[in-house]
Amino acid sequence: MLLRTRLYGKMYEFRTIKELLAKANEEKSGDRQAGIAATTAAERMAARHVLAETPLAVLRQNPVVPYEEDEVTRVIQDAVDEVVYDEIKGWTVGELREWVLADNTTTAMIRRVSDGLTAEMVAAVTKLMSNLDLIYGASKIRFTAHANNTIGLQGTLASRNQPNHPTDSVDGIRATLYEGLSFGSGDSVIGINPMDDSVDNVMRLLDMTYEVIQRWRIPTQNCVLAHVTTQMEALKRGAPMGLMFQSLAGSQKANEAFGVTVGMLDEAYTLAQKHCVSEGPNFMYFETGQGTALSADAHYDADQLTMEARIYGLAKRYRPFQVNTVVGFIGPEYLYDATQITRAGLEDHFMGKLTGVPMGCDACYTNHARATQNDIENLAVLLAAAGCDYFMGVPMGDDAMLSYQCTSYHDTATLRQLLGLRPLPEFEAWMEEIGLMRDGRLTDKAGDASFFLQR
Amino acid sequence: MDRADDKVIIDLPDPTLPEERRAIGVKNPHDLEGLRNLCAATTARIGVGRAGPRPRTRSLLLFHADHAAAQDAIYGEVAEEVKAKLGLFTVKTQVADRDEYLLRPDLGRRLCDDAKATIAARCIRQPQVQIVVGDGLSAAAVNTNAPEIYPIIEQGLKSAGVSVGTPFFIQFARVGVINDVNAIIGADVVVILLGERPGLGVADALSAYLGYRPGPGKTDADRDVVCMITYHGGMNPLEAGAYVVELIKKMLRHESSGIGLKIKMSGVE
Ligand code: B12
Question: What pLDDT digit, counting tens, does each position of A235-294 carry?
Fold first, then answer.
């Protein structure tokens, strides 16, 4: 394999596709930590020039973790639609970029091609794209899914109601849930991160949220984001669960550090299809985020963007209701500042869409990163323009349990009114019916948690 | 000239005082008394109201003030008195300073050579349980909570007849460092108490991460965590200490931790 170019008269050569992908990546502190980033800005651009001329077939033949060693690679490679792949395998990455952006490439055409792509191709084309490319490209791709309502429709923006509490107080969580509902948050899911991962606790939280959903006849679904094994046990014991959740990583070894395998996820998926209380046919919820593979020392010298793309390939196997990146969640060791967080948010959203899942984003930052709430508001506007399916809703953006800041109940309401976006249709009809929304705008009664003390 | 500004008096109460912080921002709520009760049930910023779809001015400014304070709090140090009180000597990971700590978690998971030698020289080997304390991402968490929780865990274990090793403090520690620790100690269970990343509401939450026979290749899947240990709206350290002791006993009994322990106990409990 010969991979090289001259740039301003200087020769740059790359030994492997993996190295080429890593060096072509936009600057990330995680890739530096791993010692695989381009050493100069010129080297980065040289890598991109070479990558742009690389045929898709070469990327398919060179997964960053070998097929024999890794079940995530196997899941992705085995799922490729060979008919579609045969049609596109001769395209270069640069051509794929132009094809996605072209005026006569429709949503339906991209959806079809997406079944012929592997994660390495998705990552490669992302690296060639500017931020506005990522926004425009993603805006052309929508995937819908259904549980008790329909996510992913053009013109909608949903919100996960995330009413976390530092000790999982049922009353505290319910109060916050009401606050969010009164702003129109909760159409994607009512999803709690538990402080205590025990089966009993998870069941208690599912019971409480389900009771609220029933009492107010809310067309939505509930979820408690405990470890998948805990949720499986809760489901077996009869807990009313709308969606089954798990955090995923991009290699088998990294998933093992999360305590999950493909076999376990297959089992969870089967169980969810049988026992979840939502209508379906989509029952799964996954979170991702650049850096998790490296954090588990399971990145195989591949860059964090490529490892992230592989997660979407794995997630697709389970026909998820929704997937979101938690961009900026871990800290500055993977995404150093607002520039890197913004870039990664746009990349992840585009990659999820191109892979073929309904895609949201937890646009967030921690207090040890160089970012502020303004940066996250900016990112949310960019992503909403890109057609992002949902954001998180947290009181004033300050999560009382996870110790990070993200988008607020106010933010989704604002973005909807700013950009003419609507809640998920079933949920909007419900908001209208109870009098919290009219013609896509909040009414005077909205933004008041005590509204929900009526029933 | 008319000095109108003599008449301007802006003299504000501290907006971070509890009664100011918890003031209801909703105009004409459906049920004011009910809303007060809802707000009292959580530390989350609810009942704040809105200006159009945006937050009201007070709650917006308070949020930004809290973020400013949280950023200032990131760089703290664990106090010498705290270490002295608990009888901890100090060792370091391979991290050189605070900036490197933030950017190189891999180095924070490995003991430096000096540390290995010191631990080898000063600690008893193969106790059933080894407790270590690390700074993690919040020194304040260690300063306020470690002196409270540590004695509870130690006494709880001793009175259950479980042997406890020589405790020490690890500067610039990440959770994964317990693998290196146990390569020297050889305990059945290792507990690391360390500071969680600071949030806006809670900046001093401590976590206890535990593993059964940690060592090379062991990951988070093999560990358990008891988190949000703080007097400020979390699990109080005394209660958490008792909980940690029970968890350790389970680990010893089932000779397992993390997902393995979960699977062993599912259906059994
Ligand atoms: C950051 C974080 C993560 C990051 C960690 C990555 C990283 N490299 O830092 C990511 C996103 C990967 C993560 C994943 C998960 N997490 Co987490 N995480 C946190 C968080 C917000 C902060 C942790 C912190 O400050 N650590 C301190 C620093 C100094 O430690 P560190 O060495 O830098 O980082 C290590 C720990 O953070 C550890 N860790 C993080 N989460 C968990 C969870 C468990 C069960 C274990 C054993 C270890 C662990 O992994 C890191 C690498 O070794 C806490 C919330 C809190 N209040 O503590 C939740 C929290 C600890 N996580 C939790 C859970 C449930 C998970 C998941 C199991 C979710 C899921 N369903 O998949 C997964 C898988 C964890 C695993 N087994 O590997 C729960 C634990 C509940 C409990 N009592 O058991 C908490 C309390 C929050 C929550 N409700 O979701 N998490």
Answer: 999 999 999 999 999 999 999 999 999 999 999 999 999 999 999 999 999 999 999 999
Range of the domain at B42: 13-22+29-74
Answer yes or no: is the ipTM higher than 0.90: yes
CATH number at residue B43: 1.10.30.40
Inter-axis angle of helices A409-419 and A373-385, to 10 degrees? Answer: 40
Residue B26 neighbours by CB under 8 Å, 6+ apart: A447, A448, A449, A450, B35, B47, B48, B49
Instruction: Report how far residue B152's alpha carbon sits from residue B149's, in angstroms, rounded to the nearest whole number.
Output: 5
Q: Do B30 and A366 touch (CB under 8 A)?
A: no
Q: How would DSSP label each residue in A73-137?
A: HHHHHHH--HHHHHHHTT-BHHHHHHHHH-TT--HHHHHHHHTT--HHHHHHHHHH--HHHHHHH
Read off the CATH number of the domain in which A97 is found.
1.10.220.70
B119 and B159, same domain (yes or no): yes
| Cβ < 6 A, ligand 1 pocket | A 193-197, 225-227, 246-247, 257-259, 292, 295, 329-330, 402-403; B 105, 136-137, 174-176, 194, 196-197, 205, 207, 220-221, 223-225, 227-228
Number of structural domains found in chain A: 2
- pTM of this structure: 0.96
Domain of residue A154: give its range.
145-453
B88/B146 same-domain check: yes
Same domain, B60 and B108: no
Q: Based on the domain organization, do A117 and A250 belong to the same domain?
A: no
Cα–Cα distance for residue pair A93/B145, rounded to 1 Å: 54
User: What's the pLDDT tens digit per position in A124-157?
Assistant: 999 999 999 999 999 999 999 999 999 999 999 9
Whether B64 contacts chain A with CB within 8 A: yes
